[in-house]
Amino acid sequence: MATKTGKEEKTCPHCGGPYDEKAVAAALMTCPACGYHYRMEPPERIASIADPESFVEFSANLRSLNPIDLSGYEEKLSEAEAKAQMKDAVVTGTCTIEGKPLILGLMSFQFMGGSMGSVVGEKVSRALLKGAEERLPVLIYTTSGGARMQEGIFSLMQMAKTSSAAAELDKAGVPFFIVLCDPTTGGVTASFAMLADVIMAEPGALIGFAGPRVIEGTIRQSLPEGFQRAEFQLEKGFVDTIVPRRDQRRIISTLIDLHRS
Ligand SMILES: [Zn+2]
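# zinc ion complex -> structure
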């Protein structure tokens, strides 16, 4: 909304109330009036979920090559790196939640739309395999536009790779938790994001495979209200539960206790 001073005044996209940066940050990047969940980047999420100073990153220096020699991809990666302050679209590490150790993975939509290329696939797989090896629960926050087109077939292979790593974790009898964040779509939804023991979602998150416009164009029918939102996916059985941010730490801590054998 433009004010008299010509400055852009931000408002909440859900309730239209004023956007007060401090109040939103204090409410874990949610609207204090209506609870709308703004997108959150990995550093803020780590601060909101992990015990202070407990997060230790691993596989931090993996960087993508240009496996199909696509022109301009290296430049795009460098731009994304500068913008998101990350080397690719996922951060993985170990941490504790209420003193309980686990492996935490966090995707960023800022880095090329959270797309899954070979680095995201490798880091997610390593996190899952480390969980199996060290018998540590794995928690991953997903947000993704899908496979990274710039890596062609190598991106699609990450779906099989992360899925088999999730199967190893399952075989080891170690719990796997997912929190689907806005938006989680494409190859991430179609692989590890739907393979967890408990699939949580943030309120209002868009969750699906193809986007609504593609589906409408294909089936030539208009889609129901709220299609592909977390609440709709809960009703349809794709999601086990919707957990608002303020409750996530407590609920995940309880889930870790419940799954401890
Ligand atoms: Zn609001």
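# post-check
The two ends are 54 Å apart (CA to CA).
The beta strands are 56-58, 90-97, 100-107, 138-144, 176-184, 198-201, 241-242.
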